[in-house]
Specification:
This protein has about 300 residues and is an alpha/beta fold. It has one domain: Alpha-Beta Complex (phage-related protein like fold). About 30% of the residues lie in helices and about 25% in strands. The protein is built from seven helices and twelve strands. It has a five-stranded mixed sheet. The chain has a four-stranded mixed sheet with strand order 1-10-11-4. A three-stranded antiparallel sheet has the order 2-3-5, with no helix packed on it. Helix 1 runs parallel beside helix 4. The protein is globular and about 85 Å long.
């Protein structure tokens, strides 16, 4: 009877076994991506987004229709990248039927793939104050959170175009950030409707954030004054933000965030199994192609605490 290592049916069964274990770990690892990103389909090497300028206010009708002009917006292009990793199992693992060892390794590969993907999501916020973007080309050329945002319309950007601060998280700084977002302006310099309703923080700031939005009265005082921040914001603790900075925090308009903060799984996680002809070892690999980016900046206010 031939050795099962050369059996095509055996390899097929082994492939299915390892794939099932790896994909199970991929699916079960907690993910933050659906909470903050909007996933979009893609069948191209990249996706481009051209923003369109706003239309000005209506003028009084004087018997003849007046036509408005629209300034061009900025181009943003998101290009998913390829990621892959492999494992090699020696022939003796098969001979000795050490399938549990192979299962554990395959599961670890699936977990590593999902963990890598989760890191990209956290980097979107961790690198929000940098113009160096992992997957994205931004024609505007500034950071997601910046005091240097521009417009092509010629409107003044002296107010309403700043979505970056440096204050530590407190009831006072949170109130100031909310007012700053409410004063955001569109590309033609006119006020737009922004409803900041969610606070995204590293685990290190979760208790502070919950205290600010959960205390009924007497926050930071003995007078028992009403805390106007109570219940105003949802708090999202973003575990992996602590790997970059434990003090930075972000206030967002969640509806606008899900519109403008995009995630692309160009090729979902997939696995392959093969046998090396020279060594009779089993090779198992995982591959995925993903990317993320943003269409606009007005959904977020970030504070880079020094």
């Amino acid at each position: 009877m031939g050795n099962p290592i050369i059996s095509e049916n055996f390899i097929r069964l082994l492939d299915a076994r390892l794939r099932e274990v790896a994909e199970k770990e991929w699916d079960e690892l907690p993910t933050m991506i659906p909470q903050v990103f909007r996933s979009i389909p893609s069948d191209g090497a990249w996706e481009e987004f051209f923003s369109v300028g706003a239309v000005g206010n209506f003028s009084a009708f004087s018997g003849k229709l007046q036509y408005g002009s629209i300034s061009p917006g900025y181009l943003n292009r998101i290009e998913p990248k390829e990621y892959a990793q492999g494992l090699v199992f020696e022939r003796k693992f098969l001979d000795d039927k050490k399938y549990a060892v192979m299962d554990d390794a395959a599961g670890a590969l699936g977990e590593a793939a999902q963990r890598t993907r989760e890191t990209f999501g956290a980097e979107m916020f961790a690198n929000a104050f940098s113009s160096a973007l992992t997957f994205q080309y931004s024609e505007e050329g500034v950071a997601l959170c910046s005091d240097s945002h521009t417009t092509k319309s010629g409107a003044s950007t002296s107010t309403g175009f700043d979505n970056a601060g440096t204050d530590a998280l407190s009831a006072t700084s949170l109130a100031a950030a909310r007012l700053a977002m409410r004063r955001f302006k569109g590309d033609i310099g006119q006020r737009i409707v922004i409803e900041p309703d969610t606070l995204i923080v590293p685990d290190n700031l979760y208790d502070t954030a919950m205290e600010i939005v959960g205390t009924d009265k007497g926050l930071y005082s003995a007078e028992g004054t009403t805390n106007v921040q109570k219940g105003r914001f949802k708090v999202i603790p973003y575990l992996r933000l602590d790997d970059y900075d434990t003090n930075n925090w972000f206030l967002v308009d969640s509806k606008m965030m899900k519109k403008d903060l995009l995630w692309i799984d160009r090729i979902p996680f997939e696995t392959k199994t093969t046998v090396d002809f020279e060594t009779f070892s089993v090779k198992f690999s995982g591959y995925f192609r993903s990317g993320c980016g943003f269409k606009g900046w007005r959904w977020i206010y970030g504070s880079a605490v020094s």
